[in-house]
């Protein structure tokens, strides 16, 4: 990363590009009988205005909570998954739309949002690979590539490129509100490239957990020894409850 990049957008890109990512799974000794769709999709969002997931930092209480509003649209078939990330002050940081089919999810749009003295500004990304998740048995060999690019003009004109891969590790259990939920563990690698007058490249590894019927419930990104982001699902809110508490 380069210090000339917008701090807000750089942190947003690293910390919140979760729902819209690539997927790489391979055969392992541990297999899951259900389709990965059962783990990727949050079944609580199937009705009405959807739900809001509140994620809390696991090891650093100084980091703010993250809020993701998930909802389906497109009529009876619920063909589209919409995700919006909010800060604790109610500001939108990211919006995305994915199209759902029988065998995969495809990223249709991804916008980053920052605020300056004139108010909120949006930056649209260019998506060169858009298969965000593969639906099928986790013991099959499937590979997807996720890659986005955008120009960060919030402070200086910086070209930003993100590529991400995932490797299926197998079944685990995730405990939420005292209940053990079947889940799958995914190992991740990400590469962030920036280009201004020069070129920089940063790569890091991580881990994500998707629980059956809940979707993403945990993630960890080891950017460096000094910078580790680790978040876990702490609360599930109705959108109405989130509005009354955080959207002023």
Helix/strand/pairing category: mainly beta
Terminal Cα span: 34 Å
Strand order of the largest sheet: 2-3-4-5-6-8-10-11-12-13-14-15
Helix content: under 10%
Sketch the major β-sheet.
12 strands, antiparallel, barrel
Q: What is the level-2 CATH architecture name?
A: Beta Barrel
Query: Which ranges are low-confidence, i.e. pLDDT below 50, for 5 or more consecutive residues?
Result: 1-8, 18-29
What fold name stands as the CATH topology?
A: YmcC-like fold
Instruction: Give the tally of β-strands.
Output: 15
| Total domains | 1
Count every helix, treating DSSP H or I runs of 4 or more residues as helices.
3
The averaged pLDDT comes out at: 80
Strand fraction = over 45%
Specify Rg, calculated over alpha carbons. 17 Å
Q: What is the CATH C-level name?
A: Mainly Beta
Instruction: Give helix and strand order, one letter per element, not per position.
Output: HEHEEEEEEEEEEEEEEH
* Principal-axes shape call: globular
Structural summary, described in words:
It is a single chain. By secondary structure, this protein is mainly beta. The protein has a single domain (7-246), classed as YmcC-like fold, CATH 2.40.360. The protein is 9% helix and 56% strand. The chain has 3 helices and 15 strands. The protein has helices at residues 7-16, 37-40, 239-246; strands at 24-25, 51-57, 66-73, 80-86, 92-100, 104-116, 119-124, 126-134, 142-143, 146-152, 158-176, 179-195, 199-211, 215-222, 228-238. A hairpin with a 3-residue loop joins strand 5 (92-100) and strand 6 (104-116). It is globular, with a radius of gyration of 17 Å. The relative contact order is 0.23.
């Amino acid at each position: 990363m380069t210090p000339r990049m917008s701090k807000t957008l750089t942190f947003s890109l690293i910390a919140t590009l979760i729902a819209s990512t690539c997927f790489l799974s391979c055969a392992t000794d541990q297999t899951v009988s259900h389709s990965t769709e059962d783990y990727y999709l949050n079944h609580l969002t199937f009705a009405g205005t959807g739900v809001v997931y509140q994620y809390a930092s696991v090891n650093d209480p100084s980091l703010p909570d993250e809020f993701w509003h998930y909802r389906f649209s497109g009529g009876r078939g619920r063909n589209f998954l919409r995700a919006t990330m909010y800060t604790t002050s109610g500001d939108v940081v990211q919006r995305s739309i994915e199209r759902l089919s029988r065998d995969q999810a495809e990223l249709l749009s991804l916008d980053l949002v920052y605020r300056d003295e004139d108010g909120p500004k949006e930056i649209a990304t260019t998506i060169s690979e858009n298969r965000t998740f593969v639906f099928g048995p986790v013991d099959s060999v499937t590979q997807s590539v996720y890659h986005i690019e955008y120009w960060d003009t919030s402070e200086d004109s910086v070209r930003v490129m993100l590529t991400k891969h995932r490797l299926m590790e197998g079944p685990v259990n995730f405990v939420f509100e005292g209940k053990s939920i079947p889940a799958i563990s995914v190992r991740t690698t990400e590469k962030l490239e920036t280009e201004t007058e020069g070129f920089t490249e940063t790569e890091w590894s991580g881990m994500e957990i998707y629980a059956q019927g809940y979707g993403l419930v945990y993630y960890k990104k080891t950017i460096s020894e000094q910078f580790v982001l680790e978040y876990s699902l702490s609360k599930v809110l109705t959108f109405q409850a989130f509005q009354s508490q955080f959207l002023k």
